[in-house]
Amino acid sequence: MGMVFRVKSLLMVVLASLLLSSCGLSDDTREQLKTALGKAVGEAFDSAKTKTARAAEMLSAKIEEQGGAQGIYDKIAQYVDELFEESESECEKNSAQKSKQKSKQKPKPKQTGPKILVRRTPAQQNYHDEVISLTTLKTASVIIDCLRPELDTAINVVVATYREVFEDDNYHPVITSGNDSDRHGERSAHYACAAVDIRIKDVEDIEIRKALAKAIKEDLDNRYTVIHEDVGKVNEHLHIQLKNGTYNRDEVWQ
Description:
rod-shaped, 11% strand, 55% helix, Muramoyl-pentapeptide Carboxypeptidase, domain 2, alpha/beta, 5-stranded mixed β-sheet, 2 domains
């Protein structure tokens, strides 16, 4: 049927071209061509209508077989739900595999630290207590009991510098980390009680924060390393530690 329709269409094009051309056909011949063209067009139109009607009937029958429009909608909805369920299942599977792989990995070793106990003298203990009283601990989990006397000196300088910048003799800098947390590097000075982190992000002006960090670096001598870390980020702080090689990592002070 499709081939017949295409042949008829081609014939109509040819006939139309002949009628419109100046090929010298007689009037009778032109009339015959017009009649043939009209007939061909009519048959082609009837054929198209028949096919359209037949296709509509077939489509209607298929729709009824699937339970009508609502049935088709329900099937589509079910398909989409199953598709998402498969996707979620695959995501859960991948997540479980990743968790399993992580559990197989060895945890990052933490230097539980010092093996040699060194006791502060009464004067050193009083100084330690006095300096710590000038600060605030971020949480009760911050461990600073084992800090070395050199860190007490550094914290005292930090307190004085903060108070000078803020023109507030009662300002208490916040210590956010001492010998605690598992977020430090494996060989971090924190785990040898030779480093502290001081909060600085609560100073609103970033230029003042930078000036404060610079002032503390200048006020401390060359035994110390001062790093202004995570500038502009939520975890922005000052990291202050004794320089590597200037202390015995196996010592803990109490």
